[in-house]
Amino acid sequence: MKLGILISGRGSNMLAIAEAIENGTIPNAEIAVVISDKPSAQGLIKAMEKGIKTQAIPLSGRLREEHDAEIVAELKNRDVELVCLAGYMRLLSKDFIRSFPNQIINIHPSLLPSFKGLDAQKQAFDYGVKFTGCTVHFVDEELDHGAIIAQKVVEVNDNDTSETLSARILENEHALYIEAIAKIVAGNYEIIERKVKFTAETQRRGED
């Protein structure tokens, strides 16, 4: 399966995915392209160092729909079958999402549906929760709303700051995103209303 990864910054989740493909943790997959809306994104350099095709497509004062149309065209030209948002800091237009129905996934640093949007880690910390975490979900036309693929719980320690909590959530994001992508690539799942259901075979493979 050909993956297209969208980033805006350092690309740590993108690198984790690339390494998981290299070592066989995500079998039968390749990264067709890494695209960033920020030409200076560190993740683009890291992807190029791994020999991955990259493309910078800045917004440059255009309407979001025009920007998204260029990204969609690039993804389609490379026969991308699964779009992975990995620290991509722009909301996708409806036309983008409709171009890849149930083929766009995202990693969010909270246990959705709690703490949607930006700075989710700080939202959770400031709220005083005892547990938070991260969520991999399909992307639909509402913010941080699509069907949930996988979640990981992270305990909030008494001596945490929002920064230390964010760092620990990020560590868990890497493993969770890899697990979720491996299951999606395997293909043994179905979406029933809001529930993503995997066969026992896929679940075992994700746990191995």
Give me a quick take on this structure.
The protein has helices at residues 12-22, 42-49, 64-77, 94-99, 120-127, 162-186, 200-207, and strands at residues 2-7, 30-36, 54-56, 82-85, 104-108, 131-138, 148-155, 189-192, 195-198.
Structural account:
This protein is an alpha/beta fold and 208 residues long. Helices cover 38% and strands 24% of the residues. The strands form two sheets. The protein has a seven-stranded mixed β-sheet with strand order 3-2-1-4-5-6-7. Strands 8-9 form a two-stranded antiparallel sheet. Helix 1 (12-22) packs parallel to helix 6 (162-186), helix 5 packs across helix 6 and helix 6 packs across helix 7 (200-207).
Write the layout of secondary structure elements.
Layout: E1 2-7, H1 12-22, E2 30-36, H2 42-49, E3 54-56, H3 64-77, E4 82-85, H4 94-99, E5 104-108, H5 120-127, E6 131-138, E7 148-155, H6 162-186, E8 189-192, E9 195-198, H7 200-207
Parallel strand pairs: 1-2, 1-4, 2-3, 4-5
Antiparallel strand pairs: 5-6, 6-7, 8-9
